[in-house]
Design goal:
The longest helix is centred in the middle third of the chain and has 9 residues. The protein has one domain: Alpha-Beta Plaits (2-Layer Sandwich), CATH 3.30.70. The protein is built from 2 helices and 5 strands; from the N terminus they run E-H-E-E-H-E-E. Strand 2 and strand 3 form a beta hairpin. By secondary structure, it is of the alpha+beta class.
């Protein structure tokens, strides 16, 4: 849980494009297997964190809010 968001990185689905890292380098990095992992997502402002998660081209990052609604990937892009 980060700022009321449940964020899950699917390590089997991540292919290491690093779009999340480009959007929020203080929140994510690629590990030795070239898979996205958390660094300090709590340091990233909520909207930027959502954009970073939404930037994944293979939808390997999923985000839910406190009500259990899936925000990312979602039917609409995060502005």
């Amino acid at each position: 849980m980060v700022g009321g968001l449940r964020i899950v990185i699917d390590r089997d689905q991540c292919v290491g494009f690093a779009d999340c890292v480009k959007e929020a380098p203080e929140g994510f990095k690629l590990d030795d297997d070239t898979v996205a992992v958390f660094v300090r997502p709590d340091l990233v402002q909520r909207e930027r964190l959502l954009r970073a998660c939404d930037a994944c081209p293979v939808d390997a990052i999923t985000v839910w809010d406190t009500d259990g609604r899936q925000l990312v990937p979602g039917p609409f892009p995060i502005p």
